[in-house]
């Protein structure tokens, strides 16, 4: 249920990653005011955190699936 809430309040992994790439591109291009640069930096930090959360969730699902497989193999 919490993953449903996460999906409703934050972008999915691919959307967050793509937006993060765009944020980095804009920051690297320069020419922004300090305020705009700071706002983009903060957005990039939030997007990076979102990506990390999605990846951590995926890792947990993989670990759980592998544990089931290992348990089935050990019982056989």
Automatic annotation (TrEMBL):
UniProt-listed InterPro entries: Exonuc_VII_S, Exonuc_VII_ssu_sf
Gene3D superfamilies, per the entry: Exonuclease VII, small subunit
EC number from the UniProt entry: 3.1.11.6
Compartments, record wording: Cytoplasm
GO biological process: DNA catabolic process
GO MF terms, alphabetically ordered: exodeoxyribonuclease VII activity
CC per GO annotation: cytosol; exodeoxyribonuclease VII complex
Keyword Signal set for record: no
Record keywords: Cytoplasm, Exonuclease, Hydrolase, Nuclease
Catalytic activity line of the entry: Exonucleolytic cleavage in either 5'- to 3'- or 3'- to 5'-direction to yield nucleoside 5'-phosphates
UniProt record similarity statement: Belongs to the XseB family.
Function per UniProt: Bidirectionally degrades single-stranded DNA into large acid-insoluble oligonucleotides, which are then degraded further into small acid-soluble oligonucleotides.
Record's subunit section: Heterooligomer composed of large and small subunits.
Name listed for the protein in its UniProt record: Exodeoxyribonuclease 7 small subunit
């Amino acid at each position: 249920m919490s993953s449903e809430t996460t999906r409703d309040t934050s972008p999915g992994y691919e959307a967050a990653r793509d937006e993060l790439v765009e944020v980095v591109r804009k920051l690297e291009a320069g020419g922004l005011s300090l305020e705009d640069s700071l706002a983009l930096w903060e957005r990039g930090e939030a997007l990076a955190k979102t990506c990390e959360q999605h990846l951590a969730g995926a890792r947990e699902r993989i670990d759980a699936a592998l544990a089931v497989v290992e348990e089935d193999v050990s019982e056989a």
